[in-house]
Structures are given as structure tokens and as C-alpha cells.
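Support reply, case 0932

Customer input (verbatim):
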Amino acid sequence: MGLIEGLDAITSRIANDEARYSNSDYVKAEWFKLADKQAATVQFLQEFDKNNEAYSEKNGLAVMAIEHNHPTLWRNKALCTFDDEGRCYGCEQHQKNPKAGWKQKTKVYINALVDYGDGDPVVQVLSSGLGKGQVAPVLLEILKPEEGEDPISLTKTKFKVTRSGKGLSDTAYLVTQKGVTKNDTEVYELFDLHKVLRQIPYGEQEAAYNRGAVETEERELVSASSAPEEEW
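Our regenerated output:
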């Protein structure tokens, strides 16, 4: 019978579904987030290159991920598996309809110590696309030293990040350097980026990407069937 009663049973089912459609070691992260016109002071806790003098083996490196998002169920996303498995549900959907919104998205993920100015700094994961007005392109440009200059270490630099805009199409971030810091990055507990990102086997991807769609359709059908008949 497809009924679940009781708070404990419901909570357990939700947890089981989440575990089923994500890698078994999946870790839920805290995410860097700003509102329109809000700013935060940021110290990144990872470098992009092991050759950087400030690289910490304990903290590891920032990562770049190739992902797919469900076009309407935007919370449902996972890493593209085409290179690993030769198959990927998101790639297949994009090939069927390139305008449907399944196109690969490339994002940078990096741990950061964030001070919002309303309490103690917190460790969060900053995710950024590579488009204009995003954080990652600015960082990658900063890491290219001028001729004769030493490369900059992200983990030894303070940044101010300011957001402008409220929606996906009008949002941009201003990233400015605010001097150096001697703060020890290794004293903080970082999120394991390899476990934060979902890598789902091909055989489970269709169900994972469409998780929530069936329930929505069922609610709409129930609503339609219970509507009063028109009177003539």
C-alpha cells in the first residue's frame, strides 16, 4: 500500500530517497549566498594549483564540475557521467532537445571562510559559473601573475564580494581584494567537495533527475478529479 503514516516513517522515507538518489557518501554543505546589494568578506580556504606556495594538502584544491540540472526541478542536479561511463541521462536529454535546458553547466566549487558581518565567520562552499559577472572568472584572472610578479595565493588574501541583482539574468558579483591575511586555513573543518557533488550511476539518473515530478503530476490529477462538475 502506497501510504506512509507517522512523522518518523515520513522522515525515514525522505532520508532513504535522498540516499538512494545520491552517492552513498554524499555530504550536505552550507552554501555561500548573498542577497541583492549584500556584501561579505571572504577568505578562500583552498587553492586552485598544488604548485602555489600556500597550497595545503590537508585542505586540498578547489574543483571544477561539469553538471546537468533538471530544467524545471532545479534542485535535482548531478555530475555529468559521459566521460566516465560513456552514458549520461542529462546529455541524452540535451541531444533530444537542445533548447530544453539540459545543456552541461560548468561550475567552480571552493571552500571559503565567510564573514557576513552579523556573527562569527562560517565555512561555506562557494559555487560559481564561468560567465560574465561571476566570481570564478575574477579569481582565475587574479591567479595569472603579471610578468615578473609572484603568483597570488587565494588563501592569503582577503576579498570583498558584493552582489547586485535579484534574478538569474541580472545578477553580478563584484570581487575586490582587501589586503593579506595570516589566518591559518588548516584550523577549519572543510566540506569534502568530492562528497558535496552528486555523482549518480547512469542506471539511477532518470529517477534521480525526475524526483518530485511524479508527485507533482499526481497532485494535479487529484486536484482535477476532485473539482466540481460544471452545471448546465
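We compared this against your earlier run and they match. Two observations from our side: The first strand starts at residue 39 and ends at 44. The chain has one domain: 8-209. Please reopen the case if you see a mismatch on your end.
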